[in-house]
Request: fold
Amino acid sequence: MRDLSFLLRPVFAANDDWAMARGEESLRLELERRHTRRAGQRALIPPPPATQVPVGPMVVGLLATRQRGRREPGV
Reply:
């Protein structure tokens, strides 16, 4: 994992940016929904974005798992 950190850093940064943007959008919609007084107006506010898992962290997890399996006994 350390050997690949220079390659993986942009992947993790992009994933963090993506997750923070989705969280900010969800929070903004929830606050708007809570501050709307009329039920009719509240129904017009779209639901928060669906949760999706980016592919990057899954690939990193698979790589880390494969590396663990290759260690020699006693190391």
About this structure: Residues 8 and 60 are 8 Å apart (CA to CA). The radius of gyration is 20 Å. Residues 5-35 form the longest helix (31 residues).
